[in-house]
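Notebook p. 47: complex prediction with flavin-adenine dinucleotide.
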Amino acid sequence: MRTFEHVNAPDVQTAVALLGEASTEAIAGGTDLLGELKARLRSPQRLVNLKTLAGLQEISYSPKAGLRLGALVTLAEIERHPIIQERFPILAQAAASAATPQLRNMGTIGGNLCQKPRCWYYRNKLFECWLKGGDKCFAEDGENKYHAILGADRCHAVHPSDLAPALIALDATLRVVGPDLDGELSLEELYTKPTESRRQMTILGPGELITDIRVPIPKNGSRGVYLKTMERQSWSFALVSVAAQMNFAGERIADARVVLGGVAAIPWRARDSERILIGQRFSEGLAERAVEAAVAGAQPLRDNEYKVSLAKALVKRVIIDLCSTTD
Amino acid sequence: MATKAVRAKKLKVAIRGPGKTAIKLTVNGETHELLIEPRRTLLNALRKDLGLTGTKKACDEGTCGTCTVLLEGKPIYACMALAIECDGKSVETIESLSKDGQLHPIQRAFIAEDALQCGFCTPGQIMSVKALLDENPNPTLDDVKRVLSGNLCRCGAYPKLFQAALRAADLVRTGR
Ligand SMILES: Cc1cc2nc3c(=O)[nH]c(=O)nc-3n(C[C@@H](O)[C@@H](O)[C@H](O)COP(=O)(O)OP(=O)(O)OC[C@H]3O[C@@H](n4cnc5c(N)ncnc54)[C@H](O)[C@@H]3O)c2cc1C
Ligand code: SF4
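Predicted complex, structure tokens below:
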């Protein structure tokens, strides 16, 4: 790592102002950022430590307002929280599936949502790839086992977060503070496919911070599940993951949100599958149609066709799981 | 000292570094004042500034677990923490375990169960088990597997590591 200055942020406004200056980066748990600094992908002159921000460290819950997570809440705190385990199980499952116990003690929810892609060309300083401002995506005709199968354009990297699909399935919103953005947005709106003029996976600009995440209370009888396939049972990013939350009216599926991780540059909402499911009773045929819709238009690369099969198997499993559980 | 109260665009905040700055670190119960650059990891501060080389360095990127220490009682990777951000906090390392020449029950259990081959990952493994037993003196095999899921052993001593952790729990519980 190159040298840098270090500032403990005293409050959110000051943090935003500091982060508006050139060559300044925010550090929360540091588990992603320090990896980038050590690899010299970036060498900021100053780090602003968010961990000193009071008021963003809490998990609170009320039956009316729902769940509020300060951006600095750690993944371990989410994984172990009794109310989250009971009322928002997919969030607890997603947190528990990420990284390792040690990294979950360090990593925060805000950092998790804003982490950078794990594409190995991106992580290697020697490859000046498109996402880092170059002309070429090396993964497109290179080693692309872990890359996207859906919706890719110039960049084929996937968003690595486990928490984002779960939170989107739960219809979470964020509070964002910064020079240009200030207010509430849905988590889904945070993510964007990298474009020519904005080569990144979120809409956040310099100095824009997530302060907290809010999750509405799932309707009575609503059920959710998070499934993640990985190369080993721990310490692995998702090959493919699926977060699904469904709500029933009698035998019928009243509402369904199905979000895939590991398949695209953004957490991938399978809207066509949702439309097929909503209003229907479960049947094998229905599940089959929803599964096909989830991967419609998939464009696998040389080494990642297996992700299509994984995605189909996972979507089928979550539908069967959720439709066959009885309260 | 490099700590200076600077106005960054009229903001009154303490900017430290990029040169050395003073921090206080309580390691194994003893408070030390260290002069470090902000880029110093906790791991390098322990090993290079304090000479506590029991905590090992291998991958230096959060993918092996040999540098596991307890920060405020919780297991973390010292390679992924900045020492400056541990200012005022307390750290426990493998060196804190044996007392007056007597090995800690976890250490005795590791020896009794032969829970290592090369031994390089052992300090990290032991610190993870320590964190588990501090919180839950009666762990199941699953609890043990889970708490060790962030410590890689390239010799593949896992079955013995699990047995050692369970034996250690037994020793700690019965005060032996
Ligand atoms: C070996 C390894 C395995 C991993 N496995 C997984 C896994 O399986 N699943 C998974 O989801 N993740 C995994 N991770 C990624 C891990 O870094 C995140 O899970 C962690 O939560 C990041 O949080 P942090 O606080 O450490 O982020 P930091 O490193 O502090 O920050 C990450 C980025 O987010 C920005 N940022 C931080 N907080 C905010 C905020 N409040 N507002 C705006 N921007 C912010 C920072 O500026 C930085 O660019 C893994 C990481 C490693 C090293
Ligand atoms: S997939 Fe994206 S991050 Fe990876 S090499 Fe291509 S442009 Fe770069």
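Notes: DSSP finds five helices and seven strands in chain B. The domain at 16-95 of chain B is CATH 3.10.20.30 (Ubiquitin-like (UB roll)).
Next step: compare against the earlier run before touching the bench.
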